[in-house]
Amino acid sequence: MKSTFISKEKNDVKFTMEFTAEEFEAAIIAAYQENKGKFNIDGFRKGKAPRKLIETHYGEDVFFEDAINNLFSQNYFKALDELNINVIDRPNADFSEIKKGEGFNITITVTAYPEFEVKDYKGVEVDKVEMSVTDEDIDAEINNLLQRNARMIVADRPAKEGDTVIIDYAGFVGENQFEGGTSENYPLKLGSNSFIPGFEEQLIGCAAGDEKDVVVTFPEEYHAPDLAGAEAIFKCKVHEVKEEELPELNDEFAKDVSECDTLEELKQDTKERLQKSADAKAQAQMKNTVIEKIFNANDIEVPAVMVEEEVDNMLNEFDQQLRYQGLNLEQYFQYVQKDAASFREELKDEAHNKVKTRMIVSAIAEVEKIEATEEDVNKELELMAIQYNLDVDKIKTMLGAENFAALDKDIKMKKAVDFVFDNAKIK
């Protein structure tokens, strides 16, 4: 096979793959050996008929398609390597006239990854961002710690906002009890807004043993179409009213919830932890500013196929988020009164910017010869192992070759962002 570069217009590359008569004949023989068992010829057992006899019965081009497909698949990526073409889309192929005993050409047109020179990525000026931790921040964090360690005790009084009521309920629309609207001994925190608007407020003032008909109207955008906008009655019975009892804030509490011996040590540890988090957020904000300035300084053409692919990824991620909430894209489109085409159009600007950013950062990594070392990879694998509570070896097995390549690329991108930040001018 001989590959020959023809032209490049914008990001569309054209080249030919030329096959000799001998190469074509060898591919036909291989196609015959692979497919001869599919043909029934009188006088021969299946798979034993000679090639010439099959060609006589079914046409001399009977094995052409398989032979050509095999030649293409075996040589396409080899040609890309020889011509140093990095493709980002499926190829369009145009074939010359195919005749037995002769060679032929395939002319390929395909979209290639854009070639560009990234500029102005060193010495980017960015204002220093500092985030300080206040006493109020520390108090709020300690209060959250108290809340997480609170215990529920029975309150011998009517329920108020913030209490948890243990209830049975059954939902009806008209005289019909609807599916999914029934539960027993359900713990509902009043004021959590976890139920239909108006439900929780009607249980305020109820005591243990009380029964209450809660009347609500389902939202128009409710995920169950048969209930959307409908008025419903929930027949409720309150079994218990419970309130939170916070632990006493003292040295003993500090010992129970941390490795600190005193409350003052816990507060100091909390301050240091919050400040570390604040510093990380400040640095992330400055990094984003640096990348944004480099983004604006580089006017590069982003191929439409890459934007469409990113839109696909964004849609898939959004669909997964919806499914966690018991919805899907089709239901979402009904709620917002949009169709898939218009929603895709809305995502294109964001998708374009994401792709352009990745292209720029990837180009910086290539120019600066940034690599993902074995130490970098192992560090990421250890973090993943902690996140998923698995052994590192198990993580390696689960990733596979394709995901390992993606991990390698992600590490390079992160290091490239760190590189431009380290070379920025912080004012």
From TrEMBL:
GO molecular function, one term: ribosome binding
Uppermost EC category: isomerase
Presence of the UniProt keyword Cell division in the record: yes
Gene Ontology cellular-component terms listed: cytoplasm
E.C. number: 5.2.1.8
Superkingdom of origin organism: Bacteria
Annotated ranges, domain PPIase FKBP-type: 162-250
Similarity comment: Belongs to the FKBP-type PPIase family. Tig subfamily.
Domain observations: Consists of 3 domains; the N-terminus binds the ribosome, the middle domain has PPIase activity, while the C-terminus has intrinsic chaperone activity on its own.
Protein name: Trigger factor
Organism this protein belongs to: Clostridium aminobutyricum
Lineage, opening ranks: Bacteria, Bacillati, Bacillota, Clostridia, Eubacteriales
